[in-house]
Amino acid sequence: xxxxxxxxxxxxxxxxxxxxxxxxxxxxxxxxxxxxxxxxxxxxxxxxxxxxxxxxxxxxxxxxxxxxxxxxxxxxxxxxxxxxxxxxxxxxxxxxxxxxxxxxxxxxxxxxxxxxxxxxxxxxxxxxxxxxxxxxxxxxxxxxxxxxxxxxxxxxxxxxxxxxxxxxxxxxxxxxxxxxxxxxxxxxxxxxxxxxxxxxxxxxxxxxxxxxxxxxxxxxxxxxxxxxxxxxxxxxxxxxxxxxxxxxxxxxxxxxxxxxxxxxxxxxxxxxxxxxxxxxxxxxxxxxxxxxxxxxxxxxxxxxxxxxxxxxxxxxxxxxxxxxxxxxxxxxxxxxxxxxxxxxxxxxxx
Length: 350
Ligand code: OTD
Ligand code: ZN
Ligand code: ZN
Hints:
single chain, alpha/beta, TIM Barrel, eight-stranded parallel beta sheet, three-stranded antiparallel beta sheet, globular, binds 2-OXO-1,2,3,6-tetrahydropyrimidine-4,6-dicarboxylic acid, binds zinc ion
C-alpha cells in the first residue's frame, strides 16, 4: 500500500459507466437510480430475456429506462444490440446512424447470464464487423470461450488466443472493447494492440481474487463471470487501471440478482456493485497511490474511446468512512450489494 492523500475531498468530472446491467421491469426501476446518481451515461448491456437484438427493441428499452430515472437526474442510457447468428447488418447501421445504438455486444453462446442466444461462430459475423468498422461502431466483447472441456479459469486466456487476437489482426480498424478483463494475459494483450482496442475493468476484479469466493466457505456474492482469478491477475489489473493508459476505463458490470437466486444450490453469476461503485474504485486508486490517475480512468478514457464528449459536470467524493448495508431493496427485490458489511473510505457527496 502506498500513501494516502492529504486532502479530504476529491473532485473529478462526472464519470460514466461503460458496462452495466440494468435489467427490466420492477428490478430495473429499483436499480437504475443507483447508477444515475453517480454516472452521467452508461452503456446498457442487452442481455435481457429475450435479449435486445434490434434497433427497435433497443429504442423501446431505452424509453423504459428513461421512464425509471429519478426526476432531476440527467442520465443518458447508451444502448447496445446483442449480436446473434442472424443479426441484420443494415439494422445495426441504421440504429447507429439514428443515435439509438452506441455499440454492439458479442456474447459467445452461453458465456454468461442470458447469453444462450449468443454467437456460435464468430466467422459468420465478418460482414457485420466490416460494416461496424466502416461506421466506427464499437464491438463490445465478452471474452470467454465456452466449450465444456475448457477450465472456467482458463476461458479468458483461451479466448484471447483463439478468437480475439485473430479478430483484431483481421480487422485492425474495428473498435473493440474487451469487457471486464480478469487476467494478466488480457492486460498484456490490450497493451500490445493498437489504439482501437481498449478494456473495461470492474471494481470487483480490482478488489477480490478467487480466494474471496472460496476460502472459509463458498461466497455466492463474490461470484461473477468472468470468475475472479488468482492474486497475480488482480495485481495486473490494478496496475493496468492505475497506469494512466488511455486503453483502460471504468465499466462496473453491475449485475443485480435477487438474494435467493444467488444463495442457491446453483447460484446466479453477477455482482451488484452499483450502490457504491465510484467509491469502490476510489479505494483502489487510493491504495495504489494513484488518485491522480482516477479521473482519466473514470471520466475521460471512456468517452475518448467512444468518440463522445467528456462530461463538464463535476462530482465530489469526501473522505468519510461509511459502512455498506447488508441488503438493498430494489423495488421489492432484496439484493446484496458488493462490499456489504464492509467500510469504505470515500463517499460521493450530494
Ligand atoms: N457477468 N453476470 C451477468 C453478466 C456479466 O458477463 C457479464 O457481463 C448478468 O447477470 O447479467 C455476470 O456474472
Ligand atoms: Zn460479460
Ligand atoms: Zn456484464
